[in-house]
């Protein structure tokens, strides 16, 4: 889907990463981590593209759409972001595979695995498309539980539960507490297995995410999530969330549609304003 030359140009011109051929030989993990971190700061996680599409035309993006949406700087949801990173790493010669993940509905997320990065049979999670930061490749060869990671505003870790690996959040979690939960509790965000899946496996579940309310929040809730110098700046419905010096989030209410448009243009300038206008109009009809 991406040629090696296209991948190298994208890394140099859009992510500012050079010397790739040498690093693939002697710094493969460091290069992978730089790609993940820089990609977070490049591509907005957003559902404007989906919301701006007429209801009868909504579907999971094709491989060519994925390529166009990222190279143009528009970004998208997991089915755009993580598929693009998979194609990018594949073009560079990484041994990568796709995995199905459940967030709030079966098979409504896709993540990337990378094998044999620094030694034979090692396995890493590559996550660049869930809206929460994961600024490095996560080694998955731990016996029961990973270390806790702190990236941007969120604290997270991974726990084995049989064949499942569960991602859990604690400090910085923005979702409401469930019954009996306390702010200091580790809470499940998603889970996945290490079973490799082909691209075609995801067509039906991702079409469902794009068309069936309740399978994800993205048909009813507005999301525009960006990272600038590793700090979050995001829109969730009428709230603007901005990461502070101490990595806490400051929330302010957006007062008008014109203010919303101006913030989105500042956060994600490569998304055409016609798409933004149409997305906001469609979103207003469903809330």
Rg computed from alpha carbons, rounded to a whole number of angstroms: 18 Å
Shape: globular
Largest sheet: 8 strands, antiparallel
Order of helices and strands: HHHEHHHEEEEEEEEHEEEEHH
Percent in helix: 25-40%
The overall strand count is 13
Helical element count?
9
Terminus-to-terminus distance = 37 Å
What features would you describe in this structure?
With 287 residues, the chain is an alpha+beta fold. 33% of the residues lie in helices and 24% in strands. It contains nine helices and 13 strands. Strands 5-4-3-2-9-8-7-6 form an eight-stranded antiparallel sheet, covered by helices on one side. Strands 1-10-11-12-13 form a five-stranded antiparallel sheet. α2 (20-26) packs across α3 (28-42), α5 crosses α6 (78-92) and α8 (257-267) crosses α9 (273-286). The radius of gyration is 18 Å and the shape is globular.
Descriptive keywords:
about 290 residues; eight-stranded antiparallel beta sheet; five-stranded antiparallel beta sheet; alpha+beta
Write the layout of secondary structure elements.
Elements: H1 4-13, H2 20-26, H3 28-42, E1 45-46, H4 48-52, H5 63-71, H6 78-92, E2 95-102, E3 109-115, E4 123-126, E5 138-139, E6 149-151, E7 154-161, E8 164-169, E9 187-192, H7 203-211, E10 223-228, E11 231-236, E12 239-243, E13 249-253, H8 257-267, H9 273-286
Antiparallel strand pairs: 1-10, 2-3, 2-9, 3-4, 4-5, 6-7, 7-8, 8-9, 10-11, 11-12, 12-13
Helix pairs in contact: 2-3, 5-6, 8-9
Short description:
This protein has helices spanning 4-13, 20-26, 28-42, 48-52, 63-71, 78-92, 203-211, 257-267, 273-286; strands at 45-46, 95-102, 109-115, 123-126, 138-139, 149-151, 154-161, 164-169, 187-192, 223-228, 231-236, 239-243, 249-253.
